Amino acid sequence: MIIRKSPAEIDKIRISCQILGELLDLLAEKIMPGVSTWDLDAFAYDFIIKNGAKPAFKGYQVPGLSPFPSTLCTSLNSVIVHGFPSKKVILKEGDIISIDVGAIKDGYYSDAARTYAVGTISPDAQRLMEVTLNALYKGIEAAIPGNRVGDISNAIGTYVASMGYYVADDLTGHGVGRYLHEEPQIPNAGSAGHGPRLQPGMTLAIEPMVNIGTNRVKENGWEFSVADGTLSAHFEHTILITDSQPEILTVAKGERV
């Protein structure tokens, strides 16, 4: 069932989302060569707690896996999503790192992601990040009342393919708000005019995950990586379907790459 939110619920989700927007901007100042992903995770945990919220990912459970151990998903280079922070993972010049994070504030969830350059990166990595961010906004532009979920999927997938890249197989966006993962699933490729109709009050996490070399993924527990070891990037916003244009709730000032 797709949950349409009341104005009071939307206000609470908006506050939760604002925490993430600010956090993602602050992390941009922390990401540099020599920093461990463990330190980034500790900073994010403290920030979320100081804002009266709780990390949404830490302790999250799915069947067959141990609870997710961290505040952040820190996914480096060919890791698409769900990488674990570690004291042993030290950022190096030329890396790209995707940070995915969620928060719970007053019982309502937010979810957002951004890919960051570590120092000076290659032209290929820079272009991948730009295409992935543009794909996110292509999807958001299609999130208007009366359209269907497939219109979001088609906007993302068509653009990514036109740029010579691949969306990661079987990794999707989703509804978010009362729960971290709600209906509907939002694939990053699909047919326009298909799927549930978008209606005001829906809150959705749109999140293209884009690979350079292949759509295929390999799975290792929580972690998903590009099957051929090429680079992947990930951007995500929580948005609100309104009576007209979508509202980005996880507003961030510094996400342009």
Q: Which architecture does the CATH hierarchy give at level 2?
A: Alpha-Beta Complex
Rg (CA only): 17 Å
Distance between the termini: 36 Å
Structural class: alpha+beta
What count of domains describes the coordinates? 1
CATH level 1 name: Alpha Beta
CATH fold category name = Creatine Amidinohydrolase
Give the % helix. 25-40%
In the predicted model, the low-confidence regions spanning at least 5 consecutive residues are: none
The count of strands amounts to 15
CATH homologous superfamily (4th level) name: Creatinase/methionine aminopeptidase superfamily
Sketch the major β-sheet. 5 strands, antiparallel
Give structural notes.
- It is a single chain.
- The protein is of the alpha+beta class and 257 residues long.
- It has one domain (7-248): Alpha-Beta Complex (Creatine Amidinohydrolase).
- The protein is built from four helices and 15 strands.
- Strand 11 and strand 12 (223-226) form a beta hairpin.
- The protein is globular, with a radius of gyration of 17 Å.
- The N and C termini lie far apart (36 Å).
